[in-house]
Design a protein that fits this description.
The complex is a heterodimer of chains A (314) and B (556). Chain A has 314 residues and is an alpha+beta fold. Chain A folds into 3 domains: 78 residues, no CATH class; 109 residues, Cupredoxins -  blue copper proteins (Immunoglobulin-like, Sandwich); 99 residues, Cytochrome c-like domain (Cytochrome Bc1 Complex, Chain D, domain 2, Orthogonal Bundle). Chain A contains 7 helices and 12 strands. In chain A, the strands form 3 sheets. A 5-stranded mixed beta sheet of chain A has the order 3-2-1-5-8, covered by helices on one side. In chain A, helix 4 crosses helix 7 and helix 6 crosses helix 7. Chain B is mainly α. Chain B has one domain: Cytochrome c oxidase-like, subunit I domain (Cytochrome C Oxidase, Chain A). Helices cover 67% and strands 0% of the residues of chain B. Chain B has 17 helices and no strands. In chain B, helix 9 runs antiparallel to helix 10, helix 10 crosses helix 15 and helix 13 runs antiparallel to helix 15. Chain B is globular, with a radius of gyration of 23 Å. The chains are: A alpha+beta (314), B mainly alpha (556). The interface between A and B is large, with 93 and 102 residues. Chain A: It is found in: Membrane. Chain A: It is an enzyme of class 7 (translocase). Chain A: It comes from Mycoplana dimorpha. Chain A: Belongs to the cytochrome c oxidase subunit 2 family.
Chain lengths: 314, 556
């Protein structure tokens, strides 16, 4: 048995230490709110014990002002913390635009990570220190949840959609990475290591785990193999929308809505093509639901994203 | 209200071995028919309450056995006792049985059944046959569930999250859903019965402002039972439809949405938390008033807060989904509403404390349970606020912190109140007093055992130990060992009340009408009460908890 008790988890990001500050401050508040209850119950039980002489004159059975004040004042204090906690939480939804993008695919019972240059790893995630990292996550089967305690972040990975989170790790080291949403028989074994490397070490690691092609290039290959280019390519005869410059731009739909072509939109267009049909195009695209797995789709998304930049350079 | 009416010192209980039947007992509901069928076909609310008491006690020990397996298994990081699959089945049994077959029915169906007619001056509930029917439905659902869980094996946890439950899990998910679906009808019928009874059968003078607070809390609970349980039924039917017929409702591969399931499930299950805890809050109000021998401080606030909890409780379900992928704005709204629901709970706690001020406080067993209830409920409630804080929840969601939090509410709160109620009304139900020394000892041991079991889990949770983990990193072992040792103590302490209460049935001294010197109509009838409760329907002409002002002890 490991004899030492750890009372506080390691911490590897500025965000994590802000969460810790919030927890400390909030704990002080709830101690202040509850200490009178604990102390007074004991004091009254001793002082006014049945049969014990004590001054019991003028005991009151109600006092609306007292009651209103002990309803309202704690609530106002809570509102202050609510604003603090919600503000911190909202940051998780706004990753910096220049973040390093890493794809995550969860399945029973492993984590797969894919770096932009095509390096893939299983149950280990290597990231550079001090650089924002944005995770785009997909599940191949049931709901999982990526939990990195040292960063104080957690995000469910839900089949049928992309979820995401981001962080900037600021302390090199090896930390735990684990699944927090019950996902079946071997749920408790679905974990691994979160490894924060110095920038030099990260570059070295990328080079060592070299790969033939980047995610976007792998996506381009799939784009040809799976016949996507037959309709969406420049020489196509079928009337299909061109994908160059699509990513991040507004797409008018047949329903009259206009959506922004983000990762989720591209994923849905490949797997559920009838869900959102681009205005002016016939709904003839077949689904690739049973043909492509989540990793393939993420590669295609990376490829379509890359068309944005090639467009800009042309 | 004199000292002679108080329970005799416990030593006399042991000397009067095998007291013969008293005159009161001969004409009581307990002796109105001795055959098995006179119990199994009874429509007397008091007998049905006893049937429920036996049933929920049985399920409590089944759920407790599963908990014991879990805690023993977690003694070592690698989990030597069970397989991964076996562990998952054990916590599924524990959750399903404890939630639906102990916590939800425990206080309303036993004490609500027994006490509501007595407290409002009625001869029975509005629909006595429906009451019996709901016990049979409950038993059918319960035994079927138990059979499915043990024979078939279900490994999804009590939450049945899709698509794990609908497409991937092994075992008999559909059968388990059917069983819980059946049990839900028992909840609905009981809730309906209570609502009608409280509206229509109050005796003359028993106005809403004179209702005992326990009745208020059962009324609030019944509203939730009737409104929320159908949503659970719908959800379970949809799961079965997806699993059996492949209809795409929750499974994205079929075009469904897994988050829809979570919304539906928690739309029932969060109000269900209040089904479990509101009756306990009502018990605490009764016990605190009786312990202090004073009116509850701020009756209106305490009664109104039960209704407020029932209403706001319907609007906070999304706080289970802060990291599930729901919109950030939805999370912000649910976080705010979750703080709002803490206000009425806080009112209760502060008002109970104020009630004790200048009281005549008794530390007999029921009141010790009530005070430990207040303490543990307060810890549970305040850690609930921690979980309602968005940025903190992201870290502690689905960890042992959550496990500790809801056990403080459910076990520290509801189970303590259940034992408090059992100790308080036992002399009324059975007509005999029990050993106060054993009662106090078990109240204290339950409090200590509980804290030793669950406090370390707050630390485990913040350290990052996820829930539903069969194997875990070795650095968490020491805290798990504390927790298991505490669970052992808790297990022993939970058996004690059943032992001394059972003993009292035979050897306890007759209780008299009012052994605690309490107010309330239930204490104006003999113990145990006669079959039809009241010889003449009482007339109420004063507020509840009108204890005589006793100033003779003053020296000020």
């Amino acid at each position: 048995m490991n004899g030492s008790i750890h009372l506080w988890p390691e911490q590897a990001s500025a965000y994590g230490s802000e969460v810790d500050h919030l927890v400390f401050a909030f704990t002080v508040l709830i101690v202040i709110l509850s200490a009178p209850v604990f102390i007074l119950i004991v004091v009254f039980a001793v002082k006014y014990r049945r049969g014990k002489p004590a001054n019991r004159r003028h005991a009151r059975n109600r006092n609306v002002w007292v009651e209103v004040s002990w309803s309202i004042i704690p609530f106002l204090a809570l509102i202050g913390f609510y604003v603090w906690a919600s503000d911190l939480f909202a940051r998780l939804y706004h990753p910096p635009v220049d973040a390093l993008e890493i794809n995550v695919v969860a399945k029973q019972w492993m984590w797969k990570f894919e770096h932009p240059q095509g390096q893939g790893e299983i149950n280990e995630l290597h990231v550079p220190v001090g650089e924002p990292v944005k995770l785009t996550m997909a599940s191949q089967d049931v709901i999982h949840s990526l939990f990195i305690p040292a960063l104080r972040i957690k995000q469910d990975v839900v089949p049928g959609r992309y979820t995401g989170t981001w962080f900037t790790a600021d302390k090199p080291g090896t930390y735990r990475l684990t699944c927090a949403e019950f996902c079946g028989a071997d749920h408790s074994t679905m974990g691994g290591s979160f490894i924060v490397l110095s920038r030099a070490d990260y570059a070295k690691w990328l080079a060592q785990s070299g790969t033939d092609m980047s995610l976007a290039a792998a996506g381009a290959a799939l784009f040809r193999e799976r016949g996507c280019s037959g309709c969406h390519g420049p020489a196509a005869t079928v009337h299909a929308p061109s994908l160059a410059g699509l990513y991040g731009s507004p797409v008018p739909l047949q329903s009259g809505q206009v959506v922004i072509a983000d990762d989720e939109y591209i994923r849905d267009s490949i797997l559920l093509p009838q869900k959102q049909i681009a205005a002016g195009y016939p709904p003839i695209m077949p689904t690739f639901q049973n043909v492509l797995n989540e990793e393939d789709v993420l590669k295609l998304v990376a490829y379509i994203k890359s068309l944005r930049t090639t467009e800009a350079t042309q | 209200m004199t000292d002679t009416a108080l329970p005799q010192p416990e030593s006399s209980n042991f000397q009067n071995e095998g007291l013969s039947e008293t005159g009161t007992e001969r004409v009581s509901y307990l002796r109105a028919g001795h055959s098995l069928s006179s119990w199994l076909l009874t429509t007397d609310h008091k007998r049905i309450a006893i049937l429920y008491l036996i049933a929920v006690t049985f399920f409590f020990f089944i759920g407790g056995t599963a908990a014991a397996l879990i805690r023993l298994d977690l003694l070592t990081p690698q989990g030597d006792l069970l397989t991964n699959e076996g562990y998952n089945r054990a916590f599924t049994i524990h959750g399903v049985i404890m939630v639906w077959f102990f916590l939800i029915p425990s206080i309303p169906n036993t004490f609500g059944n027994f006490l509501i007619p007595l407290m409002i001056g009625a001869k029975d509930l509005a629909f006595p046959k429906l009451n019996l029917a709901s016990w049979y439905i409950f038993m059918a659902g319960g035994l079927f569930t138990l059979f499915v869980l043990i024979a078939g094996g279900v490994d999804t946890g009590w939450t049945f999250y899709t698509p794990l439950s609908s497409m991937f899990a092994h075992g008999s998910v559909v059968l388990a859903a059917v069983a819980v679906f059946i049990a839900g009808f028992s909840s609905i019928l009981t809730g309906l019965n209570f609502i009608v009874t409280i509206h229509k059968l109050r005796c003359p003078g028993m106005t809403w402002r004179r209702l005992p607070l326990f009745v208020w809390s059962i009324y609030a609970t019944s509203i939730i039972l009737v409104l929320a349980t159908p949503v659970l039924a719908i959800t379970l039917v949809l799961i079965a439809a997806e699993r059996l017929f492949g209809l795409g409702i929750f499974d994205p591969a079929l075009g469904g949405d897994p988050l829809l399931y979570q919304h539906l499930f928690w739309f029932y299950s969060h109000p269900a938390v209040y089904i479990m805890v509101l009756p306990a809050l009502g018990v605490a109000s009764e016990l605190v008033a009786a312990a202090a021998r004073k009116p509850i401080f701020g009756y209106q606030f305490v009664a109104g807060s039960s209704i407020a909890i029932a209403i706001i409780g319907f609007l906070v379900w999304g706080h289970h989904m802060f990291v599930a992928g729901q919109s950030m704005y939805a999370s912000a709204v649910f976080s705010f509403l979750s703080l709002a629901v803490a206000v009425p709970s806080g009112i209760k706690v502060y008002n109970w404390t104020a009630t004790l001020y200048k009281g005549h406080i008794s530390l007999d067993p029921p009141f010790l349970f009530a005070m430990s209830f207040i303490g543990l409920f307060t810890v549970g409630g305040l850690t609930g606020l921690i979980l309602a804080m968005l940025a903190i929840d992201v870290h502690v969601h689905d960890t042992y912190f959550v496990v500790a939090h809801f056990h403080y509410i459910m076990v520290g709160g509801t189970v303590s109140a259940f034992f408090g109620a059992l100790n308080y009304w036992w002399p009324k139900m059975i007509g005999r007093t029990y050993s106060l020394v054993w009662g106090r000892l078990s109240a204290i041991l339950i409090f200590l055992g509980f804290n030793l079991t669950f406090f370390p889990q707050f630390l485990l949770g913040y350290l990052g130990m996820p829930r539903r983990y069969h194997v875990y990193p070795p650095e968490f072992q020491l805290l798990h060992v504390f927790s298991t040792v505490g669970a052992g103590l808790l297990g022993v302490a939970y058996v004690m009340p059943f032992a001394y209460l059972y003993y009292s049935m035979r050897y306890g001294t007759p209780a008299g009408f009012n052994p605690w010197g309490a107010t309330g109509l239930e204490w104006t009838v003999p113990s145990p009460p006669p079959k039809h409760n009241f010889e003449t329907i009482p007339v109420v002409d004063s507020l509840p908890y009108q204890y005589d002002v006793e100033l003779e002890e003053d020296h000020g």
